Amino acid sequence: MAKGILVDMTYCTGCHACEVACKQENSFPVGISGIKIHELIMENGLNTDRVQFDYYPHFTNHCNLCAGRIASGEDTKPACCKHCGTASLIYGELDELVEQMKDMPRSVLHKPV
């Protein structure tokens, strides 16, 4: 079955732990990563006194879901998911993740190509 990562943006704090774990796991050079955190800054409608920050973990084409790490039995999930302090990154079977998305209005599903 196909695997993927479900991103729950409700709880992501933009700590970049997933980026660091990915770079260390894959020994990527500077400027290359399998995941990148994007910061979205939005003004709250007409009330310009308030600003909302959202963080969006974006997977790049370098992400292979830590295939070597999982195949070796070293771990049961990719490094980014293991080191996510808010459990915003959920690894699993795609069909199961799609079901979980129904209860997560601020979620995105990543399936590597």
General description of the model:
The protein has 113 residues and is an alpha+beta fold. The chain has 4 helices and 5 strands, in the order E-H-E-E-H-H-E-H-E. It has helices spanning 17-26, 67-71, 79-82, 94-101, and strands at 3-8, 35-44, 47-59, 89-93, 107-110. The chain has a 3-stranded antiparallel sheet. Strand 2 and strand 3 form a beta hairpin. The longest helix is centred in the N-terminal third of the chain and has 10 residues, at 17-26. The two termini are 14 Å apart.
| Estimated radius of gyration | 15 Å
What distance separates the N and C termini? Answer: 14 Å
Sequence of strands across the biggest β-sheet: 4-1-5
How many DSSP E strands? Answer: 5
Give a brief description:
With 113 residues, this protein is an alpha+beta fold.
Question: Which terms would index this structure?
Answer:
single chain; 113 residues; alpha+beta; three-stranded antiparallel sheet; two-stranded antiparallel ribbon; 4 helices; 5 strands; 24% helix
Topology, element by element:
Blueprint: E1 3-8, H1 17-26, E2 35-44, E3 47-59, H2 67-71, H3 79-82, E4 89-93, H4 94-101, E5 107-110
Antiparallel strand pairs: 1-4, 1-5, 2-3
